[in-house]
Amino acid sequence: MEDNGRRSNVRVKAKLKVRFKDTSAFISEYTHNISKGGLFVRTGKPCEKNSFVQVILIMPETENEVSAVGEVIHVITPGQATDSQPSGMGIELKEISQADQKLIEDFIRDKLKSDAEKESLGRREHQRYETKIRVRFGSREALAEEYTHNISHGGIYIRTKSPKKLREKLIIILTHPDTGAEMELEGEVVRVVSEDESYRTGQPAGMGIRFLTMGHDTKAQITAFINSESVTRNKRVEFE
After folding, report:
1. 187: Cβ–Cβ under 8 A, 6 or more apart, which residues?
2. What's this model's pTM, rounded to 2 decimal places?
3. Whose CB among 42, 111, 143, 178 lies 3.0–4.6 Å from 88's, allowing a Cys bridge?
4. What is the dihedral of CA 117, 23, 65, 15, to 10 degrees?
């Protein structure tokens, strides 16, 4: 989406209000579609292809409204609809104001922080972890690469000359290199490479950690966490 701080002069054919089931649904839709510049709106009366529409997203919990201009690029009429593909229209989002971008980013950042605090409180109530390890990345690209090769598969390898013991449970704190935001994940040490083994094998000394909770919702939260500073397409890191 273009972020030019102004609204285009194109004539919009319709004004669409989109409400989400809950906060998780909003974050998921933002992560997988809106942040990539697209949105599918279910409706029995889709607009014509290539027409411009104003899309108003009603954010959950706050009921704040975020507005964007989009172009209809795909239409499914009620006659073409199936059980797996409902009638509606695919919209390519063209423009969104800086103020509305910030509203989305602040909401997601605050929600992730609040969820992390709740999860941390729940862990303290049920299990006390003696070790917390903060992982910092040199750039958002480095964080994205680590996600692609390791985190998304349920683990991370931390280089250290003083690895923890096998099966020890700990907290990994991912620190965003641009925003300074933090996200906590529970982990368990499943592999240890000592300095002696490192010398023999050439592998870096450290420990392999398996995350204890790595479901779909957690992956969506991590993706939103990585992309938290911007919703402009040319800066976005996209994941399946």
Report:
1. 155, 156, 169, 170, 171, 172, 209, 210, 211, 212
2. 0.45
3. 42
4. 160
